[in-house]
Fold these 2 entries.
Entry 1:
Amino acid sequence: MGKQGSNATKDAEVIAPFQSHVHDHGQCVADAISAAETRCAEDGSSFTPLRREVLELVWSSHGPIGAYELLEKLRDSRRNAAPPTVYRALDFLMEHGLIHRIESLNAYIGCGDPERHHGAQFLICRDCQSVAELDDKAIGRAVTRRADALGFDVEQQTVEVIGQCADCSAREPDDRK
Amino acid sequence: MGKQGSNATKDAEVIAPFQSHVHDHGQCVADAISAAETRCAEDGSSFTPLRREVLELVWSSHGPIGAYELLEKLRDSRRNAAPPTVYRALDFLMEHGLIHRIESLNAYIGCGDPERHHGAQFLICRDCQSVAELDDKAIGRAVTRRADALGFDVEQQTVEVIGQCADCSAREPDDRK
DNA sequence: TTACGTATGATATATTATAACATTCAGAGT
DNA sequence: ACTCTGAATGTTATAATATATCATACGTAA
């Protein structure tokens, strides 16, 4: 499978696993861009060079990345990029389901499955900052079940879990404060 | 029951319901303060006048409130309060489980059940900004089950649900964009 | 009384995000 | 080709949120 880091079958619950340290980075960025092209073509939205470039930068970081860090990198190719340059692109990418915002980090990350609308949950490793993107139906259902019971109409769920990933616990067993 | 807006029995799953518009506000603030005193006395931490005052302000707002809004109010009684004044107090209150931070709003809210350690989920009404605090075991379990399956060790869960509360949907039925 | 730790005061600055207005540019209709 | 329009981007300024750092106060234990 050419697309490392994604197992986007119709109802996958793990959208993007923690990144193994060895993988074809260039390929997974390229795959994300091409999925974005498809998606934007489908909804007739314009995937401009700027937006493409920002999406590439998000994917290249391969983990959550802040808007101002993106801005710095963007300036390599666009000397006069300013905060709105980046924020507008990020807004576009979020509206079109190409990236997610991680609220608890004020950061952004590529969506592992832009072809499909889905809820999302994130497991965030406090040590290596890697992130796994999930679309766990059981979590989503548990939330909506309780919300329904209270007459609350759910529009958007933010589920972000901080902890330690398997690799990092293996590396420093039981070394938690 | 003196404590309106709280049904903190041992394993309540709704910690604090949406606020009814009529309730004894003064009483519920007073109850929160007295619960905080108890809690701090128990762990030997010092519940200073400043920290008390900030907690009172958080509860008085009876909904999520931002740090700088708190700062303004705090200045009524402390002319030279500065951002660190507020942020230190907020940090203390969070560390001691007396308030929660709502990541998706950059805001703070009183914890409805400070006597007890618990996970928390929030239902946030996009119209009236009221918030319900939950401790839904099914949600928490769904999260940890999936995390376990991936070898991820959960330390902290952030679950924030945006939508429309029952009162507001009754008020403007089907008026969603 | 001194020494120490905790809390607060005070000043400056970092970080994240948006407002507002100007310019460019591609495509639709003429 | 011309012009109108709307979307995208450029540009400047500022808002909103949060932290770093050093100074001062104050209680308390030695």
Note: Helices of chain A lie at 25-42, 49-61, 67-74, 83-95, 137-149, 166-171.
Entry 2:
Amino acid sequence: MSQSVRRAVDLIRRAAEHPLSLTEAAEVLGVHKSTALRILQTLESARFVRRTGAGTYVLGSGIIELSELALGSMDLRQFAAAPLRTLQRKTGHTVHLAQLTGDEIIYIDKVDSPAFDAVKLPSRIGRAVSIYASAVGKTILAYLPTAERDRLLSHVVFERFTPTTCADRESLDAELVRIREQGWAVDNGEHDTYVMCVAAPIRDSRGRVIAAASMTAIEVIASLDQLKESLPLLLDTAIQISGELGYDTSEGD
Amino acid sequence: MSQSVRRAVDLIRRAAEHPLSLTEAAEVLGVHKSTALRILQTLESARFVRRTGAGTYVLGSGIIELSELALGSMDLRQFAAAPLRTLQRKTGHTVHLAQLTGDEIIYIDKVDSPAFDAVKLPSRIGRAVSIYASAVGKTILAYLPTAERDRLLSHVVFERFTPTTCADRESLDAELVRIREQGWAVDNGEHDTYVMCVAAPIRDSRGRVIAAASMTAIEVIASLDQLKESLPLLLDTAIQISGELGYDTSEGD
DNA sequence: ACCGCCCGTTGCATCATACGCAACGGGTTG
DNA sequence: CAACCCGTTGCGTATGATGCAACGGGCGGT
């Protein structure tokens, strides 16, 4: 493991959170200012951070460009973009797309509802979701081959975030059976008490579930029942996206 | 300057472009495989790269998350998102938002036209634009205070990309006078012969032009004259966004 | 089935780089 | 005007980054 690289990563993260002075950078790393300065100078020349007029460091456009390069090359995200925007427009709810990526399930797109301007959802593109305490996580888990599901869950330390969390393997397994039976999943405040969500599976050309689409509401805006009223649209959207990926949707669900 | 950090940056960039094996990583850096491995292991633990099942390294979701954090905290981009989507829907053209950031003008949002699925535009969020050979670049330059414009242009080596490029300071200055007179700018294939663009200035609460919005077409889809037919909508959108930023739009243009 | 080759990986000794220190100039505040 | 703090740079040194050798595993050819 490289200590210098870890320090650089730490500074990039902090510069993304809020503007960072040299003195602060040295303090948080626990190194001399000259050491922090050289790391920042290297990151600045790479456009991973930018020096502001006030002398502080913020995230640079080089990171944004790399991110857009990666997101732009994701076929799933490209195919899903228009159907998800349509779903958001028709239902009024915030819409997410999450994908299994290695050992994590990551949000790769999000179409915000204007109704949420005042209350920000915690979800963010690039961020991993809880695989057992989110609708998209449970959806993808439900359809994974048993060995792969076991492997993902072997790293998990179950935590009861709220009273409705499936906080052990048995209750989660029962929930996954339900999800497979009905073809969709619900998050009834399992990670955050005020956030409700429904999700539907997205399949690739071989029929494997590799992603999920979801609609999210918070309790002051819409109840779970109101969210479920739009479930048929969500399911149609997920099937449409699956079709774009080459899944033969005539086989039935 | 930190050599290890520069190597890490290089690997992150390459992993974003295409999957990278350890052997390739060592070769492109000119170091031993054990050295490259340790850098990659550090980046992987930070989620800046991800190891695929095939053993290659690709860009990690940690970078995507940082990028979204930065983009999500840009007020201009938040205020502009809905008006730009409306503009794209009404006109059918691809729409961009570019902002002066330090010494560069960077695309910070882009709403694609479905018509472009087959032909990809070179523009990308996070990427710097040519400040003298793009409509958004010329728009922002036109309204900068002279000292700041001179400072930005002092770093520029003019290059004639196409027959229509303003490839020297005199012809650029004349063009900037025209832009200030008419209140908008045109790119008639100045950077890429097949790309046309019109742009309008966006002002902050103090009336300074800090960004520009644009509509883009390529010659097989729409001519520059067809693009100009939507100019009133573009100007209205730019004024609307300026208003959201606190600019008093009743002062006249 | 076996062998050779290449890949990724790790422990360890070595050396080159990252590090901290001292000194500096500049800006801000009292 | 003085004191303080910031950012910065040159340089000697200590340490962390480095390469090497050895290893196990997978793959392809015979």
Note: Chain A has two domains: 3-66, 74-251.
